[in-house]
Structure formats: C-alpha cells, structure tokens
Amino acid sequence: MPGRLLRLLSLLQSRGWWRAEELSERLGVEPRTLRRDFERLKDLDYPVRSRTGPDGGYSLGESSNLPPLQFDDEEAVAIAVTLSTASRQARGQSDADGVRVATDSARIKLERILPVRLRRRYHRLVQSIEAGPGPDAGGEAALPDTDVLLELSDACADHQALSFIHVKRDGSRSLRRVKPHKLVTMSGYWYLVACDSDRDDWRSFRVERISSIKYRHERFEPQVLDAWSFVARSFAEARYRFNATVTFEISARDLRSRHYSTIFGAVKELPHQRCEVILSADSLDLLVQHLCALLSVDAEFDIAADQGVLKRLETIRARLRTVG
C-alpha cells in the first residue's frame, strides 16, 4: 500500500544502508512482502540498490531526478490517516521509536500537500480516531471508503446526530439513529462508537457496513467514553462461532503483567490465585492467533475449546515438533 511505501522511503532516506532483516522488523512485514515493495519502488523509477549474501540489504541511490509520489484525494487522505494511526500505535513502545519518528515526519510532509478543501476535514478525521497501543491484531487495517469516514468524523466533531443503514453479520439491514462519538481501529477493522438513540445505550458499528448516511436535525452534548476500551470490551464479552476458555494457575494481575499486548478476551479472577480467559471470534485464524499469544505466557494452564480450535492447536504442536 502507498502508506507503507512512504514509510519505507523515509527509512531509506534516514541512513545509507539497511539490512533486509532490519527493514522487515521496522515495517512489520515478511521478507517476501519487503521484496515486492522494493520491486514497486523500482517500477516507479526510484534508484534502489540491493546486495545479496549474508550482509545483504538495500539502499537508495542518489539521483537528481527522483520521481514525485502523486496521489488522488482519496489516496492522500488514506495515507495520511494510516500514518497518523501508526504513529499513535507506536507511542510508548521503545522499540518502535525509530518507526514513529519516520512516520511522523512522513505524515507532516504529506499533510502539507493535501488539497485545501480536504485539509480541514482530514484534521477533524484524525481527531475523531482512537487507536489502541501496538499493532492491530489483524495486521494493517484496510481503510474504509474515505467519503464515509469523512462524513462520520464530521458528525463526531460537530456532535451531530445521524441515521444510517447498518448491515449485520447475518446480512440483514437495519436503520440506526445514533449520536456518534469516536472512530476506532482495531484488529484490522474500523468501528464507529455511538450512542444508539432508540436503545439508549452505547454500540459499535463496523464502518464498512454503514451506508445511506443522513444528518438528523439534532445536536447533542458529548459524553465521556474510552471508545477503544469499549470496543475491546465488546469483543471480549461477545460470543461468536469459535470459542475457547483458558484457565491459568496465576492471578489475573500476574497474567496481564506477563502478557505484553492487549488480551482480546474476557479475563475473570478465580479463587486461589487463578484466573480464566474466555475468547470468541468468527474467524478460526484470528482466535487461534490470539490464543497462541496467550499460551506463550510462562504459566500452567488448562484449555477447553471447540473441536476446530483444538484440532488447529494440535496441528501447530505437530509442526513445532519438527523444529530443530
């Protein structure tokens, strides 16, 4: 995606030579993806130099004719939002400081070339976004339709009530009347957190499932809510197709201190310094990835899960036996 290419260019310009492993780690991509990105830069006539072997790596050659990166309005906003979100996620992570500095620099440069008609709306959009610590569990989030994001962020900033059509997971459609609060990016998806006027309660809506947005003749006083934590808690409490429960022989506090990222599950304290975590997801891959991260904690545990989940874990265990 253009946003990652921009971050790659920023890193290449920050010093003369990079080992491939370093760039892969900084960008959070596999070596194969990194090679494709460099092929794209070469196709754009950037003077990329590469060297194979144990000390192999990449550099950006000098040239007075570097082609400019040119984007249409939608691409420019998409890249700027991606860079802004990545910068927020990297804050507070010492091992991500280099990426954060390069990302901030690239974002500022890009903001300056945004069309005037989009600049103010872009800033309102960025202010409406809450991104959690660390990378999204699902990798790089695909940005929803830019016009939809801008409309929702305008409503959040103006405290303007909305109505829209929302498509549920089963494909059914419903008309929702809401007071929008914040946009949240998590696990590769985007959500609108809003107070549902008909239900008088907080709800989250997948942005790509929202359409037919209309303004209602109503403004409201904003309320205080940690939108990112609300969505994370909604994930933890929901029940989906695939489920697993892990009981640890350590307290919930100890578990959180040993697990160096967000626990995407409902954590419950048990007697005798024990705790359990309940995980649920529509995607088997997503649930197993969260589960494996959880099971990497150095503590005794028992697990109860659906047969599909247990079968996948057995496959992973068989693969690990072949390592080394």
Question: How would you describe the overall organization of this protein?
Answer:
It is a single chain. This protein has 324 residues and is α+β, with helices and mostly antiparallel strands. It has 3 domains: 2-126, Winged helix-like DNA-binding domain superfamily/Winged helix DNA-binding domain (Arc Repressor Mutant, subunit A); 146-229, SH3 type barrels (Roll), CATH 2.30.30; 238-321, Lrp/AsnC effector binding domain/regulation of amino acid metabolism (RAM) domain (Alpha-Beta Plaits, 2-Layer Sandwich), CATH 3.30.70.920. The chain has 11 helices and 13 strands. The chain has helices at 2-14, 20-27, 31-43, 73-90, 97-112, 116-127, 146-158, 227-237, 252-258, 284-295, 307-321, and strands at 18-19, 48-51, 57-60, 129-131, 160-167, 173-186, 189-196, 201-206, 210-219, 242-248, 266-270, 274-281, 301-305. The strands form 3 sheets. Strands 4, 5, 6, 7, 8 and 9 form a 6-stranded mixed sheet that branches. The protein has a 4-stranded antiparallel sheet with strand order 11-12-10-13. Strand 7 (189-196) and strand 8 (201-206) form a beta hairpin. The longest helix is centred in the first third of the chain and has 18 residues, at 73-90. It is flat and about 60 Å long. The two termini are 35 Å apart. Mean pLDDT is 82; it is low at 134-140.
Brief overview, please?
The protein is an alpha+beta fold. Helix content is 43%, strand content 26%.
- The helix tally amounts to 11
CATH architecture of the largest domain: Orthogonal Bundle
C-alpha-based Rg, rounded: 22 Å
CATH topology of the largest domain: Arc Repressor Mutant, subunit A
Low-confidence residue ranges = 134-140
CATH superfamily of the largest domain: Winged helix-like DNA-binding domain superfamily/Winged helix DNA-binding domain
Number of domains: 3
Class per helix and strand makeup: alpha+beta
Give the termini distance in whole angstroms. Answer: 35 Å
Mean pLDDT: 82
Number of strands: 13
